[in-house]
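Tokens in:
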């Protein structure tokens, strides 16, 4: 049963920030994650601040300079179906269309998707784990079939977002507004590893709100894709996934950005893959070496070692396909 809370619907972003600056305030966008967390008592809310009436937080625009801007309240369905995104940022359209079910994509927002809470069953369950102020991560030595194989230290969650790896690979930046003003953060610097702070997922401070996501103009020769493997191809979170953004100069790779989903507590940049394919033709030897390198530093636990060959196969297939 939900505990009681007050509910406000501000008309401006400044009014929302004022409410969100108070202790126990939570932002409400699409609500698909927030309401689940409140029902499961992952955290409590004294005040729920709805962002739905704030003009300017929704919509997709492309400027004369080629920069694409996506308002934080834009739904995942709108992102997936946008023709410009499908054409110029294919991986983002693929990632958005692979999130959950059609009903949730119609309700859920791009801002909420990149800011959602971990899906670890200990964090979501009745366990006072490290991330909730306890003394240990129960996944280490417990049921860890869906937990991380890279970047794990202290806490072994996997980042749940599909759009975040695609956005990071495309070089996106997050626009943030809060009590101290505006700031812009590259998406690959937006997330916090548990080794640095296991109580936070993002760099957002109390009272701050993501207002929009900015994508740079697509480089000439850019090809991008997002591949996600799920249990029984159901509407579920990624067991393993890879977002590719590769700039080709003829048959050779000029530049590459590769991010993994389902692998780590944050969208995980695979610099090992990038280094191997950069400057080369994407032949069978380069692809095979890149896939091997991607999991060279993996540290699987007792029940999730299957992710190592799974990631190798997914990465190899996607590199061949692109």
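Residues out:
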């Amino acid at each position: 049963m939900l505990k009681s809370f007050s509910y406000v619907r501000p008309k401006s972003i400044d009014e929302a920030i004022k409410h969100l600056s108070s202790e126990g305030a939570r932002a409400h966008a699409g609500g698909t994650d927030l309401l689940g967390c409140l029902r499961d008592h992952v955290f409590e809310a004294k005040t729920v601040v709805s962002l739905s009436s704030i003009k300017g937080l929704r919509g997709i625009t492309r400027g004369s300079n080629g920069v694409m801007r996506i308002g934080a309240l834009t739904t995942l369905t709108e992102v997936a179906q946008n023709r410009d995104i499908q054409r110029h940022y294919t991986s983002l359209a693929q990632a958005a269309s692979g999130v959950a079910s059609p009903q949730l994509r119609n309700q859920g927002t791009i801002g909420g998707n990149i800011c959602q809470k971990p899906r670890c069953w200990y964090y979501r369950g009745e366990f006072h784990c490290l991330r909730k102020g306890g003394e240990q991560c129960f996944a280490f030595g417990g049921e860890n079939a869906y937990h991380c194989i890279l970047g794990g230290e202290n806490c072994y969650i996997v980042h749940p977002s599909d759009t975040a790896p695609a956005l990071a690979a495309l070089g996106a930046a997050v626009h943030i507004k809060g009590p101290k003003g505006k700031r812009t953060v590259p998406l690959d610097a937006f997330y916090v590893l548990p080794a640095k702070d296991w109580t936070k997922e993002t760099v957002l401070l109390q009272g701050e709100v993501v207002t929009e996501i900015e994508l740079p103009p697509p480089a000439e020769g850019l090809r991008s894709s997002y591949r996600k493997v799920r249990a029984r191809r159901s509407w579920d979170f990624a067991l393993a996934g890879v977002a590719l953004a590769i700039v080709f100069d003829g048959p050779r790779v000029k530049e590459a950005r590769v991010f993994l989903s389902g692998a780590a507590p944050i969208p995980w940049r695979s610099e090992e893959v990038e280094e191997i394919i950069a400057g080369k033709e994407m032949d069978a030897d380069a692809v095979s070496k890149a896939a091997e390198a991607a999991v060279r530093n993996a540290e699987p636990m007792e029940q999730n070692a299957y992710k190592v060959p799974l990631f190798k196969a997914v990465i190899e297939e996607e590199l061949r396909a692109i």
